[in-house]
Amino acid sequence: MCYEAMAFTFEDMERFAAEAWGELGTRTADRWREFNVRFFAGALSPVPLVLTNTLPFGKRIAFCPSLWGGKDWPSAAYSPKTRLVYVPAQNNFCGGFLGVKEPLEPGKLWLGTKEEDILLTTRPGSDHFGELQAWDPATGKKAWQHNFRWQLMATVLATGGDLVFVGGTNDRMFRAFDAKTGDLLWEQKTNSGVTGAPVAYEVDGTEYIAVQSGWGVDAQRIQDKLAKANIGVDDNVPQGGVVWVFKVKQP
């Protein structure tokens, strides 16, 4: 069974928030509705961010987690059946910046530092860095977690058949997990690393999972940093650009 794409209204959001988080969810939804109504009516305008306690230029700072999380841009997934949120995360990576005075040019990448000066380090003694986490938003507790030796940089898909799909690892695997227990059920090596977002669709009663395999963007940037760190990682993930489609077997 596939979940259909749906357009959500404020009423849908309020109903879901109340069901998942109770009174707190209802209050949050109400405030979000009020903000949107006032913003689009022109009653609110963006406020510029002013930093009043910045570090001096030329000084390097270190921080954990790294620039890539924690949780980065790849999307998490929610299952209405299990009521769990599935999060692609990084852990045990740390980072560092060297502050430079660089003018902001609209339309261009601006980080406040040079890209080549962005450090990526690993926490000593760590046995993994990528994590697929399952959380119960109603209780705030983690239901399960699957660890990956290196980074996990990919969007998660949850299906109505209690499966969770994700790629995002430098071993080029695309994997399926049991949505309730986190057990690894299946994996397939692809031509490249899978950073694309998987989708589920149905044709004549048969469910299919499609995903694009192609390594790049932040997954490649992390790989490059790890390769330069001399910790046993090679920059050898092939580039891709292939759409894979899998047929889901019925139990």
Question: What does this protein look like?
Answer:
The chain is of the alpha+beta class and 251 residues long. The chain has 2 domains: 8-50; 57-247, Thrombin, subunit H, CATH 2.40.10.480. It contains 2 helices and 14 strands. The protein has helices spanning 10-40, 217-228; strands at 60-63, 77-79, 84-90, 93-98, 119-122, 130-136, 141-148, 157-158, 163-166, 173-178, 184-189, 199-203, 206-213, 242-247. A 4-stranded antiparallel sheet has the order 2-3-6-7, with no helix packed on it. A 4-stranded antiparallel sheet has the order 8-9-10-11, with no helix packed on it. The protein has a 3-stranded antiparallel sheet with strand order 1-4-5. A hairpin with a 5-residue loop joins strand 10 (173-178) and strand 11 (184-189). The longest helix has 31 residues, at 10-40. Mean pLDDT is 83; it is low at 1-8.
Query: How would a crystallographer describe the biggest sheet?
Result: 4 strands, antiparallel
How many strands in all?
A: 14
Topology as a string of helices (H) and strands (E): HEEEEEEEEEEEEEHE
The helix content, as a percent range, equals 10-25%
> What's the number of helices?
2
As for the number of domains, it is 2
Percent strand equals 25-35%
The low-confidence runs, each spanning 5 or more residues with pLDDT under 50, are 1-8
Instruction: Could you tell me the CATH topology label of the largest domain.
Output: Thrombin, subunit H
Overall pLDDT score: 83
Return the CATH architecture of the largest domain: Beta Barrel
In one word, what is the shape?
A: globular
Strand order of the largest sheet: 2-3-6-7
Round the Cα radius of gyration to an integer and report it. 21 Å
Measure the end-to-end span: 12 Å
Q: In terms of structural class, how would the helical and strand content be classed?
A: alpha+beta
For the record, the CATH class of the largest domain is: Mainly Beta
